[in-house]
Design a protein that fits this description.
mainly alpha; globular
C-alpha cells in the first residue's frame, strides 16, 4: 500500500523500532528515551489509521479530517499524560510530551495526510 511506503512514515517507523530495540537492550539514551517515541507517535499511529481507512473505504484520496488529528493528540495527552500518571508511578505527566504529540501531528498533517493520486 502506497500510504505505508511514504518515506517520512518509513523514517518514523524505523526510528521508533530502533529506539524500542535500544530500550529493550537496556540502552536508555537521553533525550531519545524520554522524547523520541512521543514525537514519532502521531505520524505512526495516524498513518496506520489513514491506511486502514483508505483500504476499508477503497478510497486512496481519503484524508483524515483535522478534527480527527487534533482529537488523537488530545486523546493521547489525556490518557498518557493525565490518567496513567494518576494510576501508576511508572508513568509521569510531562508537558513536553504533549508538545511533541502536537509537533508529530503537525508533521503528519503537513507531509502524510494528503490524497494519493490514482
Amino acid at each position: 500500500m502506497q500510504t505505508l511506503r511514504h518515506p517520512f512514515f518509513l523514517l518514523c517507523f524505523v526510528l521508533f523500532c530502533l529506539n524500542q530495540l535500544l530500550e529493550l537492550a537496556g540502552r536508555h539514551i537521553w533525550p531519545l528515551h524520554a522524547y523520541l517515541d512521543d514525537l514519532l507517535c502521531m505520524p505512526v499511529v495516524l498513518t496506520l489509521a489513514l491506511a486502514a481507512e483508505r483500504v476499508y473505504f477503497k478510497n486512496p484520496g481519503f484524508v483524515l479530517p483535522v478534527a480527527y488529528v487534533a482529537g488523537a493528540v488530545a486523546a493521547f495527552a489525556v490518557i498518557f499524560e493525565l490518567l496513567l500518571p494518576l494510576l501508576t508511578t511508572k508513568h509521569t505527566a510531562d508537558l513536553p510530551d504533549v508538545l511533541l504529540y502536537g509537533l508529530g501531528a503537525f508533521a503528519f498533517q503537513a507531509l502524510l495526510n494528503k490524497p494519493l493520486h490514482e
